[in-house]
Amino acid sequence: MKKRSLSQISPNSIMKDVNPDLDIERQNPSFDVERLTNILDGGAEKTQIRRTVETWIQNDPELSRENQYFQSQNERYEEGIRKSLYLAKKMDEMGWVEGGPHRDYCSRSLSSDLAFNVHQVFVKSILGLGTDEQIAKWVPLAQKFYIAGTYAQTELGHGTYLRGLETTATFDVATQEFILNTPTLSAMKWWPGDLGRTATHAVVFAQLYLNGKSYGMHPFLMQIRSLRDHSPLPGVTVGDIGPKMNFENVDNGFLVLKNVRVPRENMLARFSQVLPDGQCKKQGTDKINYLTMIVVRVAMIQREVVIILMKACTIAIRYSAVRRQSELKPGDPEAKILDYQTQQQKLLPQLATAYAFHFVSSYLQEVFDKAYTDTKEGKFDQLPELHALASGIKVIATEYSSSGVEVCRKACGGHGYSLLSGLPSLYTRLVASCTYEGENTVLLLQTARFLIKCFGMAKDGHPIPSSVAYLSSKNFGKCQAWKKGDFLNPDVYIDAYQQRAFRMLQNAAIKLQSLVQLGVAQHEAWNSCSVQLAWAAMAHIHYIVVEQFAKALQRYEREADVHRILKHLCDLFALHGMYLNTGDFMQDGYLSTEQVAMVTESYLDLLPVIRRDAVPLVDVFDFTDTSLNSALGSYDGRVYERLYEWAKKSPTNNQDKRVFETYLKPLFKNALSKL
Amino acid sequence: MKKRSLSQISPNSIMKDVNPDLDIERQNPSFDVERLTNILDGGAEKTQIRRTVETWIQNDPELSRENQYFQSQNERYEEGIRKSLYLAKKMDEMGWVEGGPHRDYCSRSLSSDLAFNVHQVFVKSILGLGTDEQIAKWVPLAQKFYIAGTYAQTELGHGTYLRGLETTATFDVATQEFILNTPTLSAMKWWPGDLGRTATHAVVFAQLYLNGKSYGMHPFLMQIRSLRDHSPLPGVTVGDIGPKMNFENVDNGFLVLKNVRVPRENMLARFSQVLPDGQCKKQGTDKINYLTMIVVRVAMIQREVVIILMKACTIAIRYSAVRRQSELKPGDPEAKILDYQTQQQKLLPQLATAYAFHFVSSYLQEVFDKAYTDTKEGKFDQLPELHALASGIKVIATEYSSSGVEVCRKACGGHGYSLLSGLPSLYTRLVASCTYEGENTVLLLQTARFLIKCFGMAKDGHPIPSSVAYLSSKNFGKCQAWKKGDFLNPDVYIDAYQQRAFRMLQNAAIKLQSLVQLGVAQHEAWNSCSVQLAWAAMAHIHYIVVEQFAKALQRYEREADVHRILKHLCDLFALHGMYLNTGDFMQDGYLSTEQVAMVTESYLDLLPVIRRDAVPLVDVFDFTDTSLNSALGSYDGRVYERLYEWAKKSPTNNQDKRVFETYLKPLFKNALSKL
């Protein structure tokens, strides 16, 4: 490539032609890029709707993301409020209906820019926990933003463990009111989004006390700020919890309540009601409601997790096709860094992982939809399996994706450290998902509890759910691969992953049982096995992802090109996981040393194969430049031009000379006579 | 623990008494805490000096770090300049001499707050590359800050590969000047610290052209900004590269040169000189100079890397002794999270790693000091080994420490995501070290090149350096451990690590050789093996760290308590590494499935043992609260009080009502009639 000289670069406009180093990567894709985009979108029609929405967003200056990396937390918050309300108005104008695909693509594209996310949870919690009258009264107000809500559950000293929450709601029969209190410092509500600077109302979770007796956690809808002047109501102390690693657009807040009175009819009462005389009346089953926690996890995997990993892959792979460094062949020009095996080994497994999680999240959605239908019909037997799957997939998706984004970022060297690359904020945002919606270790141990139960049932000959069928049906011997090519057979690697999951679970189960038999208390034995139990759950879910990816492929067997490239990605995902965890697979000689060498070779052989299509494979994701907001990752590959243009706009280049005048000039003047 | 009620918390002062949950952890340490602090400091006298310095810093309001997490990039930069110049003045006043321990502790304690770091590199580069006259002219001016310098090597399109740099310096015999140019966009200098908004001078690396012929990279000292008004000199375009993941205190910059003339005597000419007639004259050897690159890596491991991991461990372990969550035993109060095996498995290996890296960095310093002495005497034969060690240890220390800090951060749940925890900024700062001072993959492959060479020499029966002696002297059979306790014998695990390193290197070497024999070009074969070569280098360095930790212990054999706890940490570090990489150790049956189970049990058994001393073991690091700057990690364990106090000071709580008045009030007024 001929170097572009400085004088050829217009300072105020980014060139529209594509960097030849990137262009050439797009010349001969081995598969139909548009077709694969349609597959990921769920059909050509959806691709079209998505593009309609994204083109509008890209072109509307009110939704611009320019200069976002230069903004303070306060500016980001204000932008979040402004954009959210603008978007709501526009969507109404355009007739994009609630629950429809346009609206969905809007919020997916803009979610990291918007406020009112927990306001939506506030609405959903009323819909899920409120009576029909409560829904009729509150939901329309919230949907029109006439009130702003938050969902206040987590406390300063209490997260995952709901029973530990300390906020109290004591019923006063005389006035027919609940009296809400924050009895200790650690009981203050902490972290709820939209609480810090926005919410006028909150659904507050508190321990219900009736006649001095505790009735457990219940939800109370209460006003916390004036609608007229936004000042906190009497007894309410509320504010923002300050700077975080990301989520500057969200005003996470704290809330302290001191004898705040809430009328009896404001306890959300679909499932239990307090009668005027102070009796508590339970009604219906909240098992459907239990699904609302799961649905959040199911939705976040596709919308918040996989999409971020896809963005990071897009940025890092496009950049690696443009960035040149060192001689690969002596005497040649500097090589594209994407041609180095070490770079391929960093990026291409992340790409395969993004595809794997896309397909497993579709699978999870199907399982969820079925369970949802069943639950509505009063059949609840699939819930434990669904919960174990959703928890486990949430964990593996958030863990692998966040570490994958960081691998992508570091693979871009120094420029990956600049906020202008877009990569740091993808990481700092995504990594939060390892903690929210269920802390990952806690979730893994819940999946493990399900597995241990199934393991015992399988041993006793009872039927077990399909996702764990291998626990009863399998008789594992040794791996049957004889040459490295055998490891490109999904039957071979699925068997290996099943064997590994079985073995890891068996190790933990045997230890657990023997400890109990030795007289160790059950809870202590569980704790002593928890590292291995968590690992067994991870091995199980890893198997699920591999198997579901392999199954998804089969749908495209008649489209040779698409099938071939997806098969390569599935193989890479499976073999990369084996390469990184060989010890698990070698237990009891399931894999021999020679077979481990075959896995390694088979894995490494795939890298140059996928590398040829690496850029088309990220083009498939079809992100707009606005959506990527990356100086390194734009479609045209004009990396250096963009870095320079963006850097010049940084506020660090538009300061007055105060630092010079105050601190430097008095010193520098001493050099004037000497130079 | 009785809960502190809200009314007992003074809103404006943090209570000084220690949280009983933390206090109890300090009641019965199994070892002498102060003695171990002295050992890490290098003697009781050094501890005393360090405390003198840190107490002064803690008490001087000019050096306060309060509100740092609320500051913008511009504010952080201004603070960096102000504090640096204040500190320089104070150190002079106190008579703390250059190169003395007081000054060293100052800069170590404050480095993340200061500017002028690359200014110091500018000074060192003149000292290393300049003639005596050049040193005499420029160094005193820079040391007094009468000029501010930067070291401009990296370019927008070029990092690690120095020969790829594009900036040119063409000698004009007529005027006896070099004409410096940035010929392309990718040639602009990019990233140098202190360049963006501070430097008046720069050492610029450029391709020297004499009579149309290239002579390779040379350093040119040039002025870039006016000393009078700080405006860029003619032909100079200079500015700041904008926001980064961290390092807001540093003004990383860009620099474009257009026909900027530099007098002949400004080429730093210790090793080569341009004569008036345009001839280039080489003089002396620059091998000593080669050490200056290594010395930076040696120094950064202790000062920038290990210290940050130690801080993260301190914060996360103290917090985990205070934070309570869920019932461990049914009916008991919520348990300290540090009592969960899964939490111990996250944090305690990081603690062991911090100690391991402390000792290996002392070892590296010794190797360096010896090589330095030898080099001065003209003996250069230790340089390749030193380079391989320093590169490899830099890689393992930065990789393990940065991922370790992130493990600590995530182990603190939601609060670890708040900047007020101090943990996010430790991570975002430390992770940069994986890229700067030699990108880690590049460095690993340099170490691998040394290992492959030694492997060949060993095979041919030639003598090889001591750190790789195992490549020739060993005859590996099977691991000789029979019961889990055998794995607490350093001879056993050192042998295992040697075998693994040998095996990984052998795998790569055999593959490399067979590819070449098949006719694959050397550079292609190297690239095809580079993933395995990099891994072999990692395995070698992992072995070095384990062995040096085990050796360091031996010095304290007469102090039973200190020896015992260090031995536990060394065992944990070694076994944790085996547990995570069992596949490598199982090759050819070196470890059997049964032995892997023993390693796992031995590793897990150590967790509760070390957990008992976990808080004393981080108290050993002896960080002041100012230095930690963490709401979660302070000595008194008053976590929730501090989070609340600090959050209230956040600028997000001190905004006018503009957002409410502009966006929210017009909507909320619609609800007034309805509620």
Keywords:
homodimer; alpha+beta; Butyryl-CoA Dehydrogenase, subunit A, domain 2; 3-stranded antiparallel beta sheet; 22 helices; 53% helix; 8% strand; globular; flavin adenine dinucleotide binding (chains A, B); phosphoprotein (chains A, B); 3alpha,7alpha,12alpha-trihydroxy-5beta-cholestanoyl-CoA 24-hydroxylase activity (chains A, B)
Give a verbal description of the structure.
The structure is a homodimer of 675-residue chains. Chain A contains 22 helices and eleven strands. With 675 residues, chain A is α+β, with helices and mostly antiparallel strands. Chain A folds into three domains: 68-114; 145-283, Butyryl-CoA Dehydrogenase, subunit A, domain 2 (Beta Barrel); 291-461 and 486-618, Butyryl-CoA Dehydrogenase, subunit A, domain 3 (Up-down Bundle). In chain A, strands 1, 2, 3, 5, 6 and 9 form a six-stranded mixed beta sheet that branches. A three-stranded antiparallel beta sheet of chain A has the order 4-8-7, with no helix packed on it. In chain A, strand 5 (201-210) and strand 6 form a beta hairpin. In chain A, helix 14 runs antiparallel to helix 15. The longest helix of chain A has 36 residues, at 341-376. The two termini of chain A are 43 Å apart. In chain A, 53% of the residues are buried. Residues 1-15 of chain A have low confidence and may be disordered.
